[in-house]
Predict the structure.
Amino acid sequence: MTPVIEGWFTTGAEPRLLASRCTRCSNVVFPPVSSAAGAAAFYCRNPACDGQEQDSVELSRRGRVWSYTDAQYQPPAPYQPAGDPFQPFALAAVELPEGLVVLGQVADGYGVSDLKVGTEVELVVETLNVDETGERTIYRWKPIAGQEASA
């Protein structure tokens, strides 16, 4: 399994999103600062801080739906891979205990009817597609079992 975007999440039994944390003020940002950009490219996103060094941190696996919507319309090329039929999907903005709101697709088999503001979700890793290099994975948000969404 190869993540679609390297360095944004882990793929183990309990996957985690990876973020950058300023070593000066502890401000956390997702997506993380790319290691390809090098440490010199880091600057703190906190306007009150001029920190230029960062640590990599793992974020909480669970959060609560802050907002959600569905994507019913096929995006134009190059955002929709050629030859792949469009499958509508739900998007959730999830507030994590760290105070960040992270946008992501909702897990396969779930849609807006399974969500409401405040629904608890957990991070999962699923296959986005398979190409010549193998299985390509993406992080998604899966509603925690036992909750019922209301309209």
Observations:
- The two ends are 37 Å apart (CA to CA).
- The mean pLDDT is 87.
- The chain has two domains: 18-58, 62-143.
